[in-house]
Design brief:
It contains 6 helices and 4 strands; from the N terminus they run E-H-H-H-E-H-H-H-E-E. By secondary structure, the protein is an alpha+beta fold.
């Protein structure tokens, strides 16, 4: 698969590429998106140095959340809107030593309906205490 621009038009083009694949190849790509989203995005979109750094520094928990979200959107032909900032800076979690927490319970298999029982996204950080 070829790299496409990291724009809404590029996302739409990537959807067309994915949907043109055989069912077996489509499932392989869905699994790549779901379980290796950082690598899949890097290999499928034309990213500048700031975007690559941002992707590299984003906490794994958030990358995993993005992976399952994008996989589900492509698998079920759901609307997928790309919103990008004008400038990229390191994620706030990297700058403030925060920890992103994503917890969910449920089940999903490619080709089946998503069943989400619980969903939680939070940010944790340490506050220094002075004596």
């Amino acid at each position: 698969m070829k790299k496409v621009p990291f724009t809404q038009a590029g996302v739409d083009l990537k959807r067309v590429e994915l949907e043109a694949l055989s069912e077996e190849q489509f499932r392989i790509q869905i699994n790549e998106i779901r379980y290796r989203f950082r690598d899949w995005a890097t290999n499928n979109f034309q990213l500048n140095d700031d975007q690559l750094a941002y992707l590299r520094e984003t906490p794994d928990e958030f990358i995993n959340f993005q992976g399952i979200s994008v996989a589900i959107a492509f698998d079920y032909k759901l609307d997928l809107q790309l919103t990008t900032p004008d400038t990229y800076s390191p994620p706030i979690a990297s700058r403030r030593k925060a920890k992103v927490v994503v917890k969910a319970s449920g089940s999903w298999s490619p080709g089946e309906s998503v069943k989400i029982e619980k969903w939680y996204v939070g940010v944790g950080y340490n506050i220094p205490i002075f004596n």
